[in-house]
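Data availability excerpt. The first of two example chains:
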Amino acid sequence: MRPTRLLWPACLILLVTACPAPGSRSSKSDHPASPAAKTPPPAIGKADPHAAAVVKELTDAMGGQSAWDGLPCFRFDFVAVRDGKEVARFQHWWDKQHGRCRVEGPDDQGHRVVAIFNLGDKRGISFTDGVPDPDSATVHTRIQNGYERWVNDTYWVMMPFKLRDPGANLKYARTQTGPKGEVWDVLELSFDSAVGLTPQDRYWLYVNQKTHLVDRWDMLLTGDKPPPASASWESWTQVGPVQLSLLRRFEGRPVMLRFENVATPDHFDESVFTFSRVRS
């Protein structure tokens, strides 16, 4: 499930720390509990005041940062389209509450691969064409590819909710008027050198001053030369408590990314994280 270069933007900024799975045990002290300490505020990335204000308006327009953070589960398909034809589909089941993922899609040879793993330690199981992979080396490779797929695909769909993560650096670049008279706040995003898989990636987000939603982004990915590639953010759709853009259309290229079967269920059937096929 190694993604193509086309489908490889910057990584998620902060890896998910897995919570105990249902039924697991946590230790308890026999001593009286000490007074509760104040919970420190969550760490956030760097941003100038103007950029921080624009991001707050953006995430509020999408339903609120707390609404996204509080989702127990997230389901979607990442669909690549070229010349109007679907060329690849990767299906995701993300148990956000317990830090588990199922990623399903074709590998480089066209085999149907399923990787089921814990985001905290990247341990799990895998299947190829419905059959359990027999050796640990194959399982490791499948899970690593599945993890990279998860990193890539989730970032495309939920990036605005990651803008204030530790290691993200935001600055207000400029105000710009679009071809239809829309006015954008343009934010420039870069990353600390130790962040994620591709920390040299850079983005420019065009946030509509009227809707407070992203209309497009420019991206200069690791290894690419200027000018940046551009893609529109279209089909803003209410999905549970949040609003998401479900279409990316690349400027000057016959390529689109669609997000389909998007849902925010309360839970997944355990077959999702157990078997080669999901129970319908």
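And the second chain:
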Amino acid sequence: MLIHKTNIVKIELTHSRQTILEKYQTIGSEPIRVDCEDGNSYVCKYSVGTLTDFLFYELLAASFLKTWALAVPDFKFVKVKSEHVDERLGLKKKYFDKVCFGSKHGKLYIEIDKSFRDYPKRFYKEFSKHKKDFLKICLFDIWMGHSDRTEDNFNLMYDSENDNRLVPIDNQSIFFNGNIFHLNNYSAKYEYSLLSSFLPLVLFSKKELSDAKVLSELQLFFEENTLRCKQNLPEIIKNIPTEWELDATLYQDAIVKNLFSNEWMEKSWNDFIGFYQLTIKKM
């Protein structure tokens, strides 16, 4: 199989140009949004202590999602200047000693939540052009061990100015909350997959999902794009900021050994098929 390598360019650094605009009150990381010198606004993850591996997981997942040609927000490294840290938001200047991982803020991104269950069927026709992205995101999450994209916390938006393409966000919980070194000790669970949510029931008909061609195309897509990810990994690793103080070689070796092993790839695909079939039974 001849696979053309996706170009991974050096990730740019931008700096804040004014005081932090807001801090998101979420369970976990509490990202901030800040306007930057490149003219864009970024939602930023930062390190409150010494741990920075979750920032690398954001970088890795976003890079792989980009390799899969999914609608991940553009991203950069962001240096928040000390004078732009608003301590009234419960932030400390030392949180921003290291560069942040910043995802470009989409002004027309709309967050998906449980209330979308009550939307009429005609609303979801607006997603028809790119709705197979949903299946690809579910497959990606199983393969990457994303444990925090569920019906209780979708971590999914849609881009209302781009054919309502689904936009996966918040990817720091990959590898079952960072367990890349022991990945084979874990298994995906149906209830933690968006395949168990109401979304596939409103996006697809039973006839559509029962078409053998869908799985055949997805399997080829999976094989080709995981190989691209493996080829791109060394360039992604090179982008890790020195100040994150991570052993890049250690992480690269663990990812190659565990994430890209034949056993894990086969297990991921089989789990996806099993979850997929459970969803069809609910229709």
